[in-house]
Amino acid sequence: MQTMKPIYFDNAATSWPKPPAMMEAMARFNESIGGNPGRSGHRLSIEAARVVYETRERVAELIGSPDPLSIAFTKNATEAINCILFGLLKPGDHIVTSGLEHNSVMRPLRFLERQGVELSIIPCSPAGELDPGDALRAMKRHTKAIVVTHASNVTGTLLPLDALATIAHEGGGIFVVDASQTAGSVPIEVIRTGIDILCFTGHKSLLGPQGTGGFYIRKGLEDRVQPFIRGGTGSASEFEEQPDFLPDRFESGTPNAIGLAGLAAGIRFVLDSGIKRTREKEVHLTRLFLEGMAGIPGTILYGPQDARQRTAVVSFNIRGISSSDLAFELDEQFAVLSRPGLHCAPAAHRTIGTFPEGTVRFSFGHSTTDDEIRRGLEAVAHLSAAYHTVIRRK
Q1: Computed from CA positions of residues 295, 341, 123, 108, in that sequence, does the dihedral angle turn out positive or negative?
Q2: Same domain, yes or no, for 117 and 228?
Q3: Could you tell me how many helices (H) and strands (E) the chain has, helices first?
Q4: Distance (Å, rounded) from C-alpha 142 to C-alpha 352?
Q5: Is residue 1 included in any domain, yes or no?
Q6: pLDDT tens across 333-346, in order?
Q7: How far, in Å, CA of 296 to CA of 381, rounded?
Q8: Which SS3 state, helix, strand or coil, does residue 172 take?
Q9: Rounded to whole angstroms, how far apart are CA atoms 274 and 197?
Q10: Into how many domains does the chain fold?
Q11: Are residues 188 and 157 part of one domain?
Q12: CA separation (Å) from 4 to 7, 336, 373, 391?
């Protein structure tokens, strides 16, 4: 029976453990507030609205937005991306994206492609690196937007946002970024970088609960994006048309206020810890792991070798062992928890040459320790050695 303390290397899927303050904030909301924000005039409704607004302020502070009202909440990054893509694009538009995208980007784009949207996919190197020159060559006169991930959820590769923003704007397009893998762990400045729309999720590096997320939209762009959902907003109730102002234009229905209370607490933890400090720790952990893997025979690493060119996400394989079998043995024998397969990103796996088999992904987080990295390396080394010993005997 498994008695070892689990080593959690699946933070790219969802961060764990969460800071205690997150659950405390949610319990406090449930016990002391509980009202419906913006839907009533009593004190508990007003207090609930204050909690939601404070969460907007925390997100705005985190990403360098001057206006908290430019933050619209959804239940996750996937919903945020769908809100933007379906609200922005129409038949005849041209969109540019990368060969590293998650299905949260690719599936809506493939659907829209069948409706008459033209799609260009920028090729990336086997390490997941993107040449801005390829993005420039993909641009057309009718390009509506460049939509890219900030970092691959498979290789961890960071994309050159500054250069891509310049290319998008000089071509008359909008620059949209999926920050699911970076918001909270990599510094982001939407104004300085030139990001027009940034989609984020709450349950990963922002250390909030599942069921939270949203997007930042640059003031003035909201009229170019049609609401994905229409309905009650608690504002302008005398009109039967959707409000045209932020954030109400994009926020119909009762929000997940208790979850947003937890998200605000998670972001406060991130800000108090310091994103630059978090980034340095994750670079250190990733470098430690990459250096250790270099000495293990039979392993294949994917993505940049420079830890500063990637997030704390590392995909690898052991020659001859399927990713699912390897992940099972890591859990069963060593209590190392990882994610095998295609990671909802077949485009990225085609790019790095691992489709359809996939890889094992380790992803480190705010609570990962050096000792856990060493234990993970020992587990990989043991399994690689055991497998190749059996093969040699055969």
Answers
A1: negative
A2: yes
A3: 12, 13
A4: 30
A5: no
A6: 999 999 999 999 99
A7: 6
A8: coil
A9: 24
A10: 2
A11: yes
A12: 9, 9, 15, 29
At residue 310's C-alpha, the angle toward residues 309 and 316, to 5°, is: 125
Q: How far apart are CA 98 and CA 105, in angstroms?
A: 10
Distance between CA atoms of residues 218 and 346, nearest Å: 31
pLDDT digit string (tens) for 187-244? 999 999 999 999 999 999 999 999 999 999 999 999 999 999 999 998 989 998 999 9
* Cis peptide upstream of residue 247 (ω within 30 degrees of 0): yes
- With 0-12 CB in 10 A as exposed, 13-18 as middle and 19+ as buried, what is 347? buried
Distances (CA, A) of 153 to 11, 194, 303, 310, 359: 10, 23, 11, 10, 12
Task: For residues 367 and 375, give the distance between their C-alpha atoms in angstroms, rounded to a whole number.
Answer: 15
**Cross-strand bridge partners of residue 310:** 157
In the chain the beta strands, taken as DSSP E runs, fall at 7-8, 71-74, 94-98, 118-122, 143-149, 174-178, 197-201, 213-217, 299-302, 313-318, 336-337, 339-341, 359-363
Determine phi and psi for 7, rounding to 5 degrees.
Answer: -105, 115
pTM attached to this predicted model: 0.96
Q: Check if the beta carbon of residue 220 is closer than 8 Å to that of residue 238.
A: no
Which of 223, 244, 273 finishes a domain? 273
Is residue 228 within 8 A of residue 86, CB to CB? The reply is yes
CB 138 within 8 A of CB 96: yes
pLDDT given for residue 312 in this prediction:
98
Both tokens of 261, joined, read 């209370």
Neighbours of 170 (CB within 10 A): 10
Strand-pairing partners, residue 198, are 177, 216
Supply 278's token pair.
């978090």
Residues of the chain whose pLDDT is less than 70? Answer: 1-2, 388-394
Single out the residue in 273, 293, 317 at which a domain terminates. 273
Same domain, 175 and 72: yes
